[in-house]
Queue: 2 jobs
Job 1
Amino acid sequence: MKRENNDTVVSIKDLVVHYETHEGVVEAVNGVSFEIKKGEVLGLVGETGAGKTTIALSIMGLLPVPPAHVIDGEIILDGEILLGKQKVQKGRKKKDVVVAKSNHEMRHIRGKKVSMIFQDPMTALNPVRYVGDQIAEVVELHNICSAKEATQRAKEMMEKVGIPAERYYEYPHQFSGGMRQRVIIAIALACEPELLLADEPTTALDVTIQAQVLDMMRTLQREQQTALLMITHDLGIVAEMCDRCAIIYGGQIVECGDLEHIFDRPRHPYTRGLLSSIPSLEKDVSRLSPIPGLVADPMDLPEYCTFYDRCDKHCESCKTGDPDLVEAEPGHFVRCFRVEKGSV
Amino acid sequence: MAKRMTPAIARFKKKHAGKTIQVSTPGKEAWRRLRRNRTALLGLAIILLMLIAAIFAGWIAPYEYQQQIYADAYQTPNARHLFGTDNFGRDLFSRCVYGARYSLSLGLMCVIASFLTGGMLGVIAGYFGGRVDNLIMRFMDMFQAIPQVMLAISITAALGNGIPQMITAITVSTMPTISKNCRAAILNVKNADYVESSRAIGVGRWRMIFRHMIPNSVGVMVIFVVGLMGATINMMASLSYLGVGLNPPTPEWGLILSDGKGFFTAYPHMVLFPSLMILFTILAFNMLGDGLRDAFDPRLK
């Protein structure tokens, strides 16, 4: 995954995030690394509890601390270190401590350089303020401009996402779910951020609206050359929207590559399992083949391969340790002992 | 995409050309529901009547409130003196009308003062949480441990009688309840998704409190303000009645009541009319408060 590229917008290295609760430590993210280039769309696919949202919130600096703690890792956005190790004097020794940007510094980055689209459009808008004002607010906060210019920009954005600017002075409850998600996208893109994090942006919408909203997002993303992190559990959306895709399981990336790598030549048993559990229109299959078992409990992850217990191809040597992410072919990374040994 | 959307926008614009779109705000919705509630409307009417009496007291009252006509002393209600007169021959109707001015304006001042102090403290406690919350709330608990009226009496006893002293006393004694209510209202919206998404666009803490959180809890706070108005007027009358509120000859209702209590058996009208004024005003505020609660309750939509 260490491709040399100067137009990298965001790079995450070895991110480890734990939630420390009364019941124990939840190991939500365990050493995730990826990069997104300008104008690129990376899909982040995984089951519930795989750590997808935690990754997005760490980039935003919106992790609820406590219980969340960033144990290790580095996040660099557009050349700025949002999160990184620093040597801090502790007693006599110098210790490496992960230091995040302060909330005050992050305020000028959120909304301007990185925006986030939340899952549920029904509750993500302030119910007592005009939708237009809510779009104008982000412009006003980050661009030095008059209120009038901000209003103008908000109206422009509304038209861009397909809402007549006349509806500026209306309240969220007068909008349908799809319209609200359009407004939220308008808010997220109003300042033309470098990076957009979309956390299951269409999960709460029905399929026809989903297609419209995704289509519009894709158009705007191409127009503004925004890097997009698309968090989803729907491989259909990945196939439609993304350039690259990372499959995440138990807080680790288990397979990562271009779309054809993932869809045509999947190497990890989990990816294969995901693909075979999608109903197909072409093939006549009487039963779908789901992956047996449940998602690995992030409170009690095994020492060995996290997918071992559900893997249909596991062998004794799989229990010897945690496999590394290896490059199976150029740009295609897999975390599996069988690939490491070259026998698939 | 933008191009494909244009026909829809064009159609919308054509359809709504020259028309202003009817917008129903949460406030308008609440007013629509309130209008159907007769009790609340009656309460509102009484409050408006009191308000008119307070503002135009100079024109409505036939006599000055301190004007003593000894020839007319001890009169029961009649055509010249609607509510009768007291032992000094002062017209009780005029005194009650002027009394509305004191009760309403002082009540409002007390409520505003308690909101600016207790309310703000509650909002800060709710928003910041943790140690700040603990500190403010334990401080309020300390005040709440003393019975409200007793606290108010001790403050006026220490500061003396008079308008600013009484406002201080009432503000301090209502501070604990108002701060707890405001804290609860803020906690209610603190974890809302729109607060999280506002944070995600870089909204700072004070803008978050004043532009996003308080406007969303205005419904709860309006109900509380109206309820508090009634309670405050009640407390003012109690303090004045006990002789630790305002000084005579101020026509405060509690004070008129206190003046008349010596003649209660022979001339019951001297206590009846000021009592009725207090009763109706508090009743009106409570009826309006109940109506507002129903009107703002989203579950009744």
Note: The radius of gyration of chain A is 21 Å.
Job 2
Amino acid sequence: MNDRRRETLTYLTGFMLALALTLAAFAAVHWPVASAGTTLAIILGLGLVQVVVQFRCFLHISLARSSRDDLLLVLFSTLIVTLMVSGTLVILFNLRERMM
Amino acid sequence: MSEPSLQHAGINMGGTENRPDANAESGIFGFWIFLMSDAVIFALLFAIYGTALAATAGGPTPAREFKLDSALAETLLLLTSSLTIGLTVLAMKYDETRRAVLAWMGLTFVLGIAFLALEGHDLATMFADGAYPTRSAFLSAFFALVPLHGIHVLAGCVWMLVMAAQIGAYGFDARVRINVLRLSLFWHFLDVIWIAILSVVYLQAHLP
Amino acid sequence: MQTAYSPIWPAVLGRFTWHDLPFVRAWENPNASEIIGAGAASLVIIGFVITVALLTRYRRWGTLVEWVTSLDHKKIGIMYVAIALVMLSRAVVEAVLMRMQQAAAIGDPGFLSSDHFSQLFSTHGSIMVFFMAMPFLTGVINYVMPLQIGARDMAFPWANSVALSLTGGGAILMMVSLVVGRFSTGGWSGYPPYTGLAFSPDVGPDYWIWAVTLGSIGSTLGGINIACTIFKLRAPGMTYMRMPMFCWTSLCTSILMIFAMPPLTVATALLALDRYLGFHFFTNDLGGNMMNYANLFWLFGHPEVYILILPAFGIYSEVVSTFSSKELYGYVSLVLATMAIAVLSFTVWVHHFFTMGQSANINTVFGIATMTIGVPTGVKIYDWIWTMFRGEVRFSVPMLYSLAFMVTFVIGGFTGIILAIPPLDYVFHNTLFLVAHFHNMLIPGLLYGLLAGYTYWFPKAFGVRLNERWGRIAFACWVIGFYLAFMPLYVLGASGMARRTSEIFEPDFRPWLYVAGAGALVILCALASLVVQLVVSIRERDANRVFAGDPWDGRSLEWSTSSPPPEYNFAVIPHVDGRDPFYDGKRDNGHYRRHAHYDAISVPRNSVTSLSIGVAGLGAAFGLVWHMWWLAIIAVLGIVAALILRSFVRDTHRTIPAAEVAETEHRWHDALNAATPIGRDVEFTPRNQGLAETAA
């Protein structure tokens, strides 16, 4: 029963953290304290943290040996996604800027 | 080396897994790879959404069309369902009673359907307001991204019905167990995608 | 003119009209172009009828069903290669037609209409990439890789079969486009806005979209399967750094498939949304941006180049090492080079559209990244050369292909460096120079490699060596044909001749176009020689059997089984303790050991659901192309139903009893005992029964 308690706690911790991060992001938009650019950075930052939290608590991706393959897979995917998305945005915004 | 072990990659069935299955490890890992491939599809749709954000062609704008209150409600529904699908897996791992597993999965299903209903209502409101996909590139990008996530949620709900039928028919045999694990991965993954949708689509639309 | 033909029964047949049949068009307007179109359609129909007739005549329908429903990775691999060879024949004939047209159309319209010519270059490119190269390499990986890592099957046999049937569905759709309607004229890359609804309202781009989509979904599934198999199913002791080089390149290729196919799926899906539902992703109005498409397409397109080339690199590594009787030189550097190429391939896509208008700084970054890929590729070439150095090189057909590859590929690489420099690319962009360059990369870097692999592993798959003489003739034709057909294109491109031109107005181009045309005819002879080789080999099969399994004194585990291998591959899973386990093992007398006791083995049962997903996929695609909505809806529901049904199947495996395994193994061991070990000097003679002399 001990294992079950521990695992349930992991899920509950993840849930509470995710909830807090979501509400914080909403609050940052609803009661703005910073400029648009800064607020966007805050939102995206909070989102990123929440993704990490969910990967850790819900999807059980950790540094443990048993999930090493998965961790590598997720990190490699992150690399590719970053390359593709940032590349696309840089190129397309550059094109628009030069056409305007 | 990949000696068959009790450690399930990806989802913590841990050392306490009672019924090890040699196929489980590659079965789950293969599903992880599929999810990452799917993630690339979403990532590209996000990138396109980013490039189309300004291309409203004089039509409806993000700030006008996206409602924060319903976005918050949808987020809470999906986040809670992510917790309940986790509890489904724990129930399968420790209780092994059909009732416990089906109860948690049923709750997840209801939350998923509620999410879909709310999102469907949002989209219908947008249509009524003249914000339909053929209006501008921005709306095209939105209607490719968010409903695709919705279709995934719908597929997840259908999958739950199928799993419920299989639990009824076969109990918890090796294939049912591995498919419930895959389903839970899929559902958590959809919640992760939703975080990105919430941040990039809904919250970004209401920056100060 | 077309409006005169109102659609018949629009609810059932969608937008089909009689005018969509090439026979009707040829009847009404009997010029060379239409008659060639009708001829091609007849060939498809005649081929189909002959196949059906032969199957019925020899009562082989059961065999066919047994094959297409099989989940055995070896049968699936062979079927992939069969699809590839059929599609190769069609695409080569199309290439010859285009070369003939250009040679004939100097200051003259030639014999093909410009529309027909555009269809030819679109189908040629689409087929060669998606339905020749992809099935060929997937098939070879499917067949060889599990045997090399000591596995009994792929990680997901059923998904493997689904991937095959989807790819097959796409290939069939390409063939159907010859008979019903017409294909896209937008090239293999299908750039909008030209392929959008505004400029191409006909069925052509829809054929392209759905054929490519079927192929790309199949490839994504295939990639997941290959990667998972290599990660999880290696035999005990087979660490990553002991894997044969071909497995490494297969792994990197599969990772590229997993991450590079989604951009293509997104690109075609969004183009479909534009065409079917009036979205505005790539249109000229309401904010659409066709540059998004170019970006998406090449996010896929560049890694795709390495998906195509890496497996061939692996085959060359195996072939060069085996036929030099030496261990592969620089194994670690080859592994690192392969991984470097795989990662770098995601960082260079912009070099396909340097001229689109982004700033010089961005072009510079991607130009430098492109040139960087030359470094690991160069490392590989040196490693192969060092492998041959002081080896006992035997000039077998696969080895000849490898040598031709090394020389030719380096030339192509140099022209690639030229194109990687943005200012020069502005000059050469969209000329035949580019066409010459990528054929110079892909023919040696893909086709020669796969043909080498085909010749090398054919005895493994069928237990019969291919005819050596016709193999050499085919090789000579491929190489001579390549140089004749493509070297002139460099000159023409540098002189400013645009690619995809159906009529030429510069008389100075004439000699070069004639030489290129002659080269195309030599390539046609190469294709014919391959057919003759196959026929001759089947006729002489009894003289060239290598049932014992090791015709080339092989090094890796696939040679340690009988030829063809039993359904379960290995009666006892081998234990690996080195990089060349079989080569070392047979010299220490460790292999070929008869066991006293064999266990029963579980293998996947045949499945109808995987096949029906492919059939339904084809149906959905055809329905969508012709706006037969009822067909599309039924087919999509059919796919969902098949998926659900399959998840309910519990009886997925059958057991081969221990007695049957023992009998199979004993038969093989008896043959081994009866066979005479041969030296390498007689390996191309009928004395080669597949047992290598190991006492040095």
Note: Chain A touches chain C at residues 69, 76-77, 79-80, 83-84, 87-88, 90-92, 94-95, 98-99 (CB under 8 Å).
